[in-house]
Structure formats: structure tokens, C-alpha cells
Amino acid sequence: QVQLMESGGGSVPSGGSLRLSCEFTYRTPFMGWFRQAPGKEREAVAINAADDGLRYADFVKGRFTLSQDNARNTLYLQMNDLEPEDTAMYYCAAAPNGYIRGSARLLPSTYKYWGRGTQVTVSS
After folding, report:
1. Mind listing the pLDDT tens digit for each residue in 66-89?
2. Which of 36, 44, 45, 61 has its CA 20 to 30 A from that of 109?
3. Are 79 and 20 in contact (CB under 8 A)?
4. How far apart are alpha carbons 87 and 11 in whole angstroms?
């Protein structure tokens, strides 16, 4: 059982930055960040795959950076140049061990373990 706990959310003005952290108890080959805005479906933000590295959603546009410190059992998401459209609950997730095909790696349904989330609010 993988446990995850996010922190680092908050309220910032447009153009601001935040760094999210996710402490995990056990590392799996596929871990990442997702978000869900009110009235919208949960969507992938960034994924770290053990076999081919980092993948980002198109809307990130070079503004966000995912990093993983396995010595500290922590996943980070550095978010710069935030926009009001980035307002959402941000979740850390881990998929079960095993191979995941490329097309499934960005699907929330692929991930079994979730944190409780941390709120990010960006004002215009």
C-alpha cells in the first residue's frame, strides 16, 4: 500500500509561483501529479515514468517542472507563471507496479494510489 501526502498549495496572483511536494511511503515506476478544477474531470499534469522519464500535459507549456528525490521519498512540482486557469486541487498519484502502455500513462484511472490533494488558487 502506497501512501502519499501533498503540501505546498496556496493562493497566489497571476504570474506567481508555487512548489508542491508529495511525500510517499513507497516508490512505484509511474508517479505523477494530477489536478481537478470544480466541475471538471481530473487530468494529468506531469508524470515520471521509470522507463522513459518525464511527460507533461500540453497546457503546462514549459511552466511546470516535476522532479523526484528518492532519497527523501518526495515528488515535487515547481509551478511558475501561474494562470487563473491553473486553479484546482492538485493530487499526487502512484500507479501499481507493472508495465503501463504509453497511452495509459496520463489517464487518472491508471493510478491506484492517491493523496488527499492540495489546493492551488490563482487570482487574476
Report:
1. 999 999 999 999 999 999 999 999
2. 61
3. yes
4. 9
